[in-house]
Fold this protein.
Amino acid sequence: MATNFVAKAQYTSTWNDKQCAVVLTYDDAIDVDLDNVIPALDSMKIKATFYLIGSSPVVAKRINEWRKAAKNGHELGNHALFHPCDGSLPGRSFISPDHDLSKYTVARAVDEIRINNVLLKAIDGKDRRTFAYPCGDLKIGNEYFYSQLRNDFAGARGVTAGMKQTTQINLDDINSYFITNESAEQMIDLVKKAMANHSLLVFLFHGVGGGHSINVSLDKHKKLLQFLKQNEKQIWIAPMVDVAERIRAVQAKTSIINR
């Protein structure tokens, strides 16, 4: 009985007095984020993270709308200035030579990401945010470029599927579930699993109701949001930056206790 009480105290203190945490993330700064996603989230008072590519025309043309979204509690995360990906990998013919990460130096990648942080701060006025790896690429050659950026961000979201509890989470490569037309039931089942395991669940969306070749329908997305809203007393639904900061604090405290 005492063991169960301690275990419950541990996960509830991490997840804002809830059973688990769910983070909704949306990549690439596309029109449907502003046209479809944010209105749906705002209608249910759910906050999320949007990973913006600084060079996206949707950032330049709709900057006031992004600023409003940030003011309303959504995170504007960093998805790099030009979204460079490793063009040397299989299936990467879509990568332009100018933005082929395999041809970057680490210094160039770090500089462009930091420039994007300056842009994002000019939009939302905030100093803390999270990063998302373009295409999930962690390295340039054999070097992890994010190792030079740890102090710039609360954490970095990757693309590897998985649910972990606080002490298991790697803030340099936070697991996420890449959604590509999964059913509403499949997405809701992931939430139920996170609740049962008291773990972190991160969704990675691109298009919602169109706008991207990687897409989930408006109806499926709505059903997921409805389930989250119906269970918000058990689920901490928050932007990635808030969750990452909480994880960092808990991990630091655990490390001190275990010394």
In short: The chain has one domain: 2-257. The CA atoms of residues 98 and 236 lie 40 Å apart.
